[in-house]
# Entry
Amino acid sequence: MLYPLFRPLLFALDPEAAHHAAFAGLDVAAKAGIAKLALPAAAPSPVTAMGLAFPNRIGIAAGLDKNAEHIDGLAAFGVGHIECGTVTPRAQPGNPKPRLFRLVAAEALINRMGFNNGGIERFLANAARARYSGILGLNIGKNFDTPNDRAVDDYVGCLRAVYRRASYVTVNISSPNTKGLRELQGDAALRALLTALKREQAALADRHGKYTPVTVKIAPDLTKTAIEGIARLLIEHRIDGVVATNTTIARPGVKGMRRADETGGLSGRPLRAMATEVVRTLARTLDGALPIIGVGGIMCGDDAKEKIDAGATLVQVYTGLIYRGPDLIAECARALAQPGKPKARQT
# Structure
């Protein structure tokens, strides 16, 4: 693959500018029909989860395509699913720039983007233009200026808007870059949110004759007790899946590095062990009641296998793509297609 040749050029740019430049090139290649020819094929590792048939276990994590503008380009990677967002009801610019930083020696990123997106209407218009017919997750959040005691309104409104287009919907209550958002992971707040979402999901299923699964994305910085409590709430409210994890506010393995003290969420290789431990704790508590999507620090095929062996059914990548390029997808797909692997529960 040619990505190692282009990476120095992209890394010479500001990280956010490089992000847009890379997608501009990918979109052109996808529209011209040459992206699939140039990219390595992903080995099949089919699995059924949340009632959906995934052709392989590798997916794109939310945050890479916030506005659902690049679905067809990402589809050329051969992934089993794509998750877009996080989208909020109203457009918002996110936090001031600069807000995305590379820690190259650690193969990590720190971001404090803050749910920058064009709002739900633009998001859905973009998704409707995509030719991709595979599994599409749509990730929803609340606007930064919506107080937490009104957050349910934002999430229910977003669920109502994306329900028909989504293969599944992820509820993001774990970004560290929207003030107070992680408070929604607390017992009382989460119970109220899940109750409202399940009520709306049932009404929408009746209205549209289509059941769209709902997952919840959690943080890696929770205590073991808190993770176990969230798992029990997810079972109690019959939530369809859990995404583990978002970025961390801790700085494992990067202290003293340039940019390591920037405010925001850390992703990439340093997050791997933390995220895997959350998957492991969830798997023990859930005991197969619902599937886990493992995210965080997947930089090679062995990292993907580690998440699956810890109890995940599916995995997602983001920062690894920045450092490894599309070859990472093919490598992970090969690793998970090996006979006898993975050892995960399937639901």
